[in-house]
Every structure is written in C-alpha cells, then in structure tokens.
Amino acid sequence: MRYDVIIAGGGPVGLAAAISFARDGRKVCLVERSSADVLADPPFDGREIALTHHASEWLKAVGAWDEIPAGSICPMYTARIETGKTGNPPLLFDAPADGPDALGHMVANHLIRRALYRVVSRTQGIDLKAGEGIASSWHDTRSAGVVLADGERLEADLLVAADGRFSRLRTEAGIGAIVHDFQRNIIMVCRMRHPEPHANTALQWFDEGQTIALLPVATDERPGSCSSLVLTLEPDEIARLKALDGKAFSEDITARTQGRMGPMTLESARCVYPLKAVYAHRFQAPRLALIGDAAVGMHPITAHGFNLGLKGQEVLAKAIADGPGDAGDPSVLSRFERTHRLATAPLFAATNAIATVYTRDEAPFLMARRAGLAVANRLLPFKAAVTNMLMDRQG
C-alpha cells in the first residue's frame, strides 16, 4: 500500500495530524496499537487538558468540538499561582475585560481523543490500522514505510512519529533527546468532589514539599463542585497515597490542601505518570518528522503539552501544503523543524527553569519564589503578555 503520509501513533496529536493531512487532500495511513473499540471509547486517564483559544478554534474548524459534550467543557476564568504556605499573596491572571470571557477551557483528555477519533472515522482519505503494532520501519532519501506485526508492508513519502515522549521511532532513527528527569512522579486524581465552589479558577500551588494543582472540572452535579487534582511528590509517597482506600485518601488530600475547598471526596481512579520532560535533538530526518511528545514532551506545569502538539502538526501540514508536492521533501521538513523549534525551544527552557526553581524548598529558593510572584503581580505588561500566552488567541 502506498500513501502520502504514514502516522505512527493514534493519540490526540496523531489523530489531529491525520485529519489535517486528509483535509489537504493527502492519502493518510494511521497506525495505532490500541483497538478500534478503545479509540472509539477511550478509558478515563486522569488528565485534563487546558485548551487555548487557538486549540479550541482548530477543534471547531474540523468538527471535533461538537463531538465533546457541552456539559464537560469548563471555561477557566482565572489562573491562580501560589507559593509556600497559605497566606502569601497569589499571582493572578484573569481573562481580559475586553474579552473573550475565559482564559481557556478545561476538557478531559479521553473526551478529546474520542472526539478526534469520530472525525477521523468519517474523513475520507484516512486509512486507520487499529490494533496493529509496527514490527519495523525505514526512511531514506527515496521512501519511508513500516512493516506491521502481521507482515503487511506500507510505503509513503513521509513517516510521522507521533508515538509519545519515549518514541521508538525517534530512537530507531538515531535521534537523541534532552530528557529532564525531575526525580518525581505525578499523580493525577480526577476527580475530587468538594463543597466549596472552584469558581472556574485553576490553582497552581508550589507548597513546601509538594506541588498541587486544582483544575476546574465541569460536571452535571452542582456546578463548581468538582476539580482535577494534580499532585507532585516523591515516588515513595505517591505509592503510599495510591495504596490508600478512598476514605483515607480523601482525608489526606483534604489535609494537604489545608481544607481550602472543604472536605474532599475521591471521585475516580488514581493515575500515576512519570515526570520527565523531553526535547528531541532534531525534529526530522530523511522522510521522517517528529510531532507531539515525540518532539517536545512538556512538563505539565504550563498545561501547554497538547496545545504545542496540536500546533506542531499544523506547522507540518502547512509546510507540506506549501511545498513542492512531495510530503517528505527535505525543504518541507527543514521548514517544519525551523518553525516548530522557534515556537517550542524558549517555552520548553522557561518551563523547566520555573519547575526547578519553584519545586526546591531551600530558604533562598523560597524567598526568591515569594519575591518573584510579588514583583510579577505588579508588572502589568508582563501579566498581559503571560495572559496572551495562556490564551494563545493569535495562534
């Protein structure tokens, strides 16, 4: 079988890329290890995605937004950043008075995946190979392709690796990566029920010895009564918390959050993920392109991982559309890499620096954190710039 593009990996970014290429008239093959049943109804994985306005507009343009239940989309009006014990002045970012009325929208990752799959399933030009593993792959100056586990051979002008931050295709291509291991695990507990309303506010709290995020979640029961908990701790402590029964865990989280939302109740499974940020040394090789976490796997502190992945596949699709007609042409891949690296490198470096400084508890770092938030709160141009970054209204 011959295609314009073969995409390895059917996560949200891989699905989005298939849609973009097909809408441009490309013949696309999407290979994903998960079965079609799992793609059609992905399990809850604990992750909430803070969609920028640019991301939301892209989802609307391709028809995926309408596939997300309206009652599951939670507008975020305020981002609140705190450091140290409660009582220290927070740094606040509010939606601008001149609109739009929200910084962005919180949507569960599994709902985004389901919505994108539904669009893929009805888009002409996409051949979905679900439940298929890749036995081997190749890419050179003449062609690219994969051999599936069942022996089927697929060829294309371009092979796209969208297989995650520990990408097998990236490794086999000999492309190294900067791996920033924060020596911690991240536990995502979605959802926690609480009596105090979240007021559509996303909290990022750099407490001493732990980092807590409480992200607003939309539910049918009592609006504002449910949040997604993202708790960063040492691996041993994460393991202990995961082993607790629901009642003991709820009591522990209520104490950790100092009762700020009232007594909290566990509403879902507890999902644990390794906390590592990844930045590939190169985003391309002959007839190979890296997108999503295979190219840039962000620390979740800025909630921009999916947004950057979505923009990466847009950049690649545009480079192909503006190219000579060959999706794997070297000029196409060079243009894609140059543009995407300029967009991601500064944010990746800044995010890792913030994550490092704001998770260290030595006295100088605590003082610097408090002073930094206090100064930033008074710098209105800085706050306006960060607000625009969070919203990404101009893409």
Could you explain the architecture of this structure?
The protein has 395 residues and is an alpha+beta fold. The protein has eleven helices and 20 strands. It has helices at residues 12-23, 36-40, 53-62, 109-121, 168-172, 235-243, 246-256, 305-321, 330-357, 363-378, 380-391, and strands at 2-8, 28-32, 48-51, 74-76, 78-83, 91-94, 104-108, 126-130, 134-139, 144-148, 153-161, 177-193, 201-207, 210-216, 226-233, 265-266, 270-280, 284-285, 288-290, 296-297. The strands form three sheets. Strands 5, 6, 12, 13, 14, 15, 16, 17 and 20 form a nine-stranded mixed beta sheet that branches. Strands 1, 2, 8, 9, 10, 11, 18 and 19 form an eight-stranded mixed beta sheet that branches. Strand 18 (284-285) and strand 19 form a beta hairpin. The radius of gyration is 21 Å and the shape is globular. The two termini are 36 Å apart. The mean pLDDT is 91.
Shape: globular
Distance between the termini: 36 Å
Number of helices: 11
Q: Strand tally, please? A: 20
Rg calculated over all Cα atoms: 21 Å
* Residue windows where pLDDT falls under 50 for at least 5 positions: none
Give the strand content. Answer: 25-35%
Structural class: alpha+beta
Q: Give the helix proportion (percent range).
A: 25-40%
Query: Biggest β-sheet: count, sense, barrel?
Result: 9 strands, mixed
- Look at the structure and give the mean pLDDT: 91
Helices, strands, pairings?
Elements: E1 2-8, H1 12-23, E2 28-32, H2 36-40, E3 48-51, H3 53-62, E4 74-76, E5 78-83, E6 91-94, E7 104-108, H4 109-121, E8 126-130, E9 134-139, E10 144-148, E11 153-161, H5 168-172, E12 177-193, E13 201-207, E14 210-216, E15 226-233, H6 235-243, H7 246-256, E16 265-266, E17 270-280, E18 284-285, E19 288-290, E20 296-297, H8 305-321, H9 330-357, H10 363-378, H11 380-391
Parallel strand pairs: 1-2, 1-11, 2-8, 5-13, 11-19
Antiparallel strand pairs: 3-7, 4-7, 5-6, 9-10, 10-11, 12-15, 12-16, 12-17, 13-14, 14-15, 17-20, 18-19
Helix pairs in contact: 1-4, 1-8, 8-9
